[in-house]
């Protein structure tokens, strides 16, 4: 389970709660008494207050409710649920890592608890805290989420009476004294609330001042209760401010649209309830009743404002001229939907969540091992040498460098080989690899397009309590990304540490994981081995008569786009007909036959060459004989071959959306483009402009990129330790919620 990484923050956030517990919770008798008294008051107001407000007994109201047709009631239920769905956008904007489904679950379960328990807002917040913690949302983010969602909800309720008064005046209807005073008080409260919120979000100094003011007031209250103690509100409030400022900057628009849509749908729901019961009120009068009802729910007198809000709603509708039976029936129907219906639906949702938690606890990994520096590391990959590719090369290099550092690193792979292997390469079927995971301190899984072998071993490692790091070596976007995401769906709920080989790959994967943390763990090379030998630079040919070779190193497969590369090369030749431009494609793959047939068909055999498979040791020679390197794949997650070309001193032309942009700066190390058309223009510029080409090449020869193994190994070790720490604090079995929720609202 994910937790806040700042122990001091956690200590400050729970200081008040800890001190309250030291003083001892209220007695169980007092809690039960308050529960009974609160519900007795609520039911009394509904049973007696509502009929008295309309001067009509329930015998006159119930027939109106019984006369409703079920399609109309079903339509009202659908509208009620649609409002909750719209409101979930407020919650997802306040906590971006939430999915809409989880936000809806929070809405329903929190409302169900707060509608049952007296002063149930605190209990609903406590339930939401536990649910969000189970989903990996830490204390800081939850605090910001709670502050923003309550701020938006309360603010929307306070501004409604002012809007209602304006609407009644504009419609030429009378405004009751009750509504006028309510609008005045609510408007002043809204202005004060908005001013305080704006000051806190805009200025740390105002946040400190507000925190000290709260500390002063609370100390005086506690002193009056003869329970003096020191409090620290300023520190946690500053942390909440930073979190809220970040969320508001990114999510103010969906949050505003979400709360506006939710309020509009609830107002429409009340209007339709009053319409089907033939209450005879106009829409401005509906708005007035809705505003008063929403404002009264803020008062923490009864659970969910039941009774108080009901009597207030019926009273204002009668004062505005509504039909007694229709107004009372419409108000009861509306409150039944927005209050009573939320209890069984939210309770059922909570039950489903608790059942899922219990099932997850039974499937949870075995007890983790004691923390320590990992010494035995298993690298799991679906593909490995003798196949050639980015993952194969990177895993081989990584293991060799880790072993040079003293780690006992091995490779587990299903890829077969006819030749001899080092002792640290173990070619095993999936079942055998899953049985071996307990022999290692850490399992490092490398996944790409489809990696059933690696995902299966990762699941086995987690079930056995072995820390697991998963590194994604491809862009998880589009339909293919959805298929790959389905393969890791179960792992999302386990304490796996996720990483990707570039910021671009991490961002696409982070969206797929609904905001889970994804570290960047870039590939690396031995930079000096790929540097151009220290010899005078080749002189630039001012006539341009010498050949200019474009080179690309790739596996010839659709994702690497070898055919679009050849087509782009044709266009470059057309733009520079006076230059001797050539294309060298280093690599092999299933598209090699198609590429060579296309070259023959287009008459390019004298200027396009495909080398086929060659040893890696020969790649540097081809790079040193070329002029420009081309990386045509926009979904290149890192671009190891492009990095090697950059070290060799070649200008690199690549798509700016790819991982190559992590180490190539536009017009400094190469040229970054948005699409194939821009790539053709960039290549033509480098072909025609020898000065530009040589300037970039000279910079690349002189300045080495910061992608050496020292930093990569340090980052990898840090993620191994994080995987061990994360597994050392596994999710516990579901905690007993009822005592905790009662304690929260005490």
Characterize the structure shown.
With about 750 residues, the protein is α/β, with parallel strands linked by helices. The chain is about 60% helix and about 10% strand. The strands form 2 sheets. Strands 3-2-1-4-5-6-7 form a 7-stranded parallel beta sheet, with helices on both faces. The longest helix has about 45 residues, at about 235-275. The chain is elongated, with a radius of gyration of 33 Å. About 45% of the residues are buried. The model is unreliable at about 1-25, about 480-485, about 730-735 and about 735-745 (pLDDT under 50).
The helix-and-strand class reads alpha/beta
What's the N-to-C terminus distance?
28 Å
How many beta-strand runs?
13
Tell me the Rg in angstroms. Answer: 33 Å
Give the helix level as a range of percent. 55-70%
Mean pLDDT: 83
Count, helices: 28
As a percent range, the share of strand residues is 5-15%
Uncertain segments are 1-26, 478-484, 730-735, 737-746
**Biggest beta sheet summary:** 7 strands, parallel
State the shape: elongated
Strand order of the largest sheet: 3-2-1-4-5-6-7
């Amino acid at each position: 389970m994910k937790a806040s990484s700042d122990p001091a923050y956690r200590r400050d956030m729970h200081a008040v709660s800890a001190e309250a517990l030291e003083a001892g919770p209220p007695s169980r008798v007092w809690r039960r008494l308050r529960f009974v008294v609160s519900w007795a008051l609520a039911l009394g107001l509904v049973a007696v207050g509502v009929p008295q407000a309309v001067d009509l007994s329930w015998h006159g109201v119930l027939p109106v409710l019984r006369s409703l047709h079920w399609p109309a009631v079903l339509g009202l239920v659908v509208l009620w649920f649609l409002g909750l769905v719209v409101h979930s956008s407020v919650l997802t904007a306040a906590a971006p890592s939430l999915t809409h489904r989880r936000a809806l679950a929070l809405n329903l379960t929190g409302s169900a608890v707060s509608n049952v328990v007296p002063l149930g807002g605190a209990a609903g917040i406590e339930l939401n805290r536990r649910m969000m913690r189970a989903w990996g949302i830490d204390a800081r983010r939850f605090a910001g989420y709670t502050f923003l969602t309550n701020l938006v909800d309360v603010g929307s309720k306070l501004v409604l009476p002012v809007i209602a008064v304006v609407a009644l005046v504009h419609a030429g209807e009378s405004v009751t004294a009750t509504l006028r005073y309510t609008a005045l008080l609510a408007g002043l409260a809204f202005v004060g609330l908005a001013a305080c919120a704006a000051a806190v979000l805009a200025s740390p100094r105002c946040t400190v001042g507000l925190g000290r003011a709260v500390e002063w007031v609370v100390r005086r209250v506690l002193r009056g209760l003869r329970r003096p103690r020191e409090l620290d509100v300023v520190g946690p409030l500053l942390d909440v401010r930073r979190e809220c400022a970040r969320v508001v900057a990114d999510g103010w628009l969906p949050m505003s649209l979400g709360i506006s849509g939710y309020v509009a749908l609830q107002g429409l729901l009340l209007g339709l309830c009053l319409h089907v019961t033939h209450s005879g009120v106009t829409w401005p009068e509906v708005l007035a009743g809705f505003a008063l009802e929403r404002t009264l729910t803020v008062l923490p007198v009864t659970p969910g404002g039941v009774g108080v809000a009901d009597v207030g709603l019926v009273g204002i509708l009668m004062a505005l001229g509504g039909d007694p039976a229709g107004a009372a029936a419409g108000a009861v129907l509306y409150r039944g939907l927005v209050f009573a219906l939320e209890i069984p639906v939210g309770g059922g949702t909570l039950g489903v969540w608790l059942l899922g938690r219990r099932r997850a606890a039974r499937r949870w990994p075995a007890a983790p091992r004691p923390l320590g520096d990992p010494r035995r590391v298993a690298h799991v990959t679906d593909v490995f040498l003798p196949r050639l590719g980015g993952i194969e090369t990177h895993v081989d290099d990584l293991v060799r460098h880790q072993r040079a550092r003293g780690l006992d690193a091995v490779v587990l792979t299903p890829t077969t080989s006819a030749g001899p292997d080092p002792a640290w390469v173990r070619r095993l079927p999936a079942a055998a690899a899953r049985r071996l995971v307990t022999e290692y301190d850490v399992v490092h899984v490398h996944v790409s397009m489809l990696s059933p072998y690696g995902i299966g071993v990762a699941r086995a490692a987690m079930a056995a309590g072995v820390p697991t790091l998963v590194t994604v070596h491809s862009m998880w976007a589009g339909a293919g990304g959805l298929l790959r995401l389905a393969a890791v769906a179960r792992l999302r709920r386990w304490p796996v540490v996720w990483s990707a080989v570039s910021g671009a790959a991490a961002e696409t994967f982070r969206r797929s994981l609904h905001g889970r943390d994804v570290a960047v763990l870039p590939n690396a090379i031995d930079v000096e081995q790929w540097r151009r030998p220290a010899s005078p630079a080749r002189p630039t040919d001012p006539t341009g008569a010498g050949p200019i070779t474009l080179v690309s190193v790739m596996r010839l497969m659709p994702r690497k786009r070898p055919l679009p590369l050849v087509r782009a090369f044709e266009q470059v030749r057309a733009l520079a007909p006076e230059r001797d431009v050539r294309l060298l494609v280093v690599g092999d793959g299933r598209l090699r036959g198609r590429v060579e047939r296309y070259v023959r068909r287009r008459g390019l055999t004298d200027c396009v060459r495909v080398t086929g498979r060659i040893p890696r040791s020969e790649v540097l020679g081809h790079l040193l004989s070329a002029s420009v390197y081309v990386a045509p794949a926009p979904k290149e997650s890192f671009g190891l071959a492009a990095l090697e070309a950059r070290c060799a001193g070649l200008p690199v032309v690549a798509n700016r959306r790819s991982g190559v942009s992590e180490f190539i700066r536009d017009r400094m190390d190469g040229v970054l483009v948005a699409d194939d058309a821009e790539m053709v223009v960039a290549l033509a510029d480098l072909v025609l402009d020898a000065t530009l080409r040589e300037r970039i090449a000279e910079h690349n020869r002189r300045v080495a990129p910061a992608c050496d193994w020292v930093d990569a190994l340090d980052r990898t070790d840090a993620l191994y330790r994080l995987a061990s720490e994360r597994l050392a604090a596994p999710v516990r079995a579901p905690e007993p919620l009822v005592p905790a929720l009662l304690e929260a609202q005490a």
